[in-house]
Amino acid sequence: MFDTFAIASLPEADESLRSAVRDIIVRCAKGMPTDQRARSWQGFSAEFSRMLGAEGFLGLTLPEQYGGRDRGPFSRFVVVEELLCAGAPVAAHWMADRQSAPLILNYGTETQRQFYIPRICRGEALFCIGMSEPGAGSDLAGVRTRAERRDGGWLLNGQKIWTTHAVHSDYMIALVRTSGTSADRQGGLSQLIVDLKAPGVTVRPITDLTGDAHFSEVFFDNVELGEDALIGNEGEGWKQVTAELAFERSGPERIYSSVVLLDAWIRHVQSSRQIAARADVSPLVGRITAEFATLRAMSIACTARLAAGESPVLEASIVKDRGTSFEQLLPIVIGDDLAAHPDEAVSDELYRTLLYVTHIAPSFSLRGGTREILRGIIARGMGLR
Length: 385
Description:
Strand order of the largest sheet: 1-4-5-8
Largest sheet: 4 strands, mixed
Helix content: 40-55%
Strand content: 5-15%
Number of strands: 8
Shape: globular
Structural class: alpha+beta
């Protein structure tokens, strides 16, 4: 099974994008404190996303006829890697650029493509993803939110939860049941585009332990949607979602969530310890670097398969499972190292960054599919289920 993780390299034409992205980051994110940059892909700035769109760094993989750049997945990998390493606030366009636009391109009608994709490429249409529901955990097939067909459209009722940045978004792509019952599991599911300002939609933010409110719960009370809300064919939502999750789980964001903290800690070690005293931390830095490089190579291998037009569901699950474990390990080992050197002065900024990442790290293996779900997919891929 590991034959599918073939070593791949980033094309030089895509590597050349790095300097231009760094220029934008310097202009827009310079001076941001480290603990704010540690928000990583949860940092929200609609202004920054519109600037990226104006500079041509959104919709990189989408056709030019819809406002995209007609480049491959490697170009998006390079841009995303630069943004995450800097801790740039990318959440405003994140879902739309990564998942919603490719979904609409692949399964939507021509009218949907022409209406939504150019606005996504400009950073003007913000999307969230409505998959999770109360009581279902990561069991996507446990969908109870239901859309019933009416003359000229759909009537939507139900609830979504743990929806990232729904409170700031314009639209949700919701996985809902359009036929059968929850006992039918993966059958009878469809995806609908929901205008979050439509009558009957209520969005309530959920404040987490850090004081941030990235997540929301969203209620649908007799929400009337047009016929054109349906993406693809009715009843094929499960197939569409499965392909979509390969985009969500394979990317570098599943490796880089703690990278701002890692950089800050290494700078702290370099500035506060004598060369002889660094010997105790060198093996740890080497171990982290080796694991980081391996995960990055695996993520690039997944990107290569996306570039080949494949859907690396199994490989993406492995990358996310190992990547989030790595992200969760970093605040632990960094905290242990700082505690082992109590005579060192730790800056308030590094301390706040460590506290934030420590608080938020448990969510890394929950969002985008829990560890248990991913390992079930991996076991099935190995023929063990």
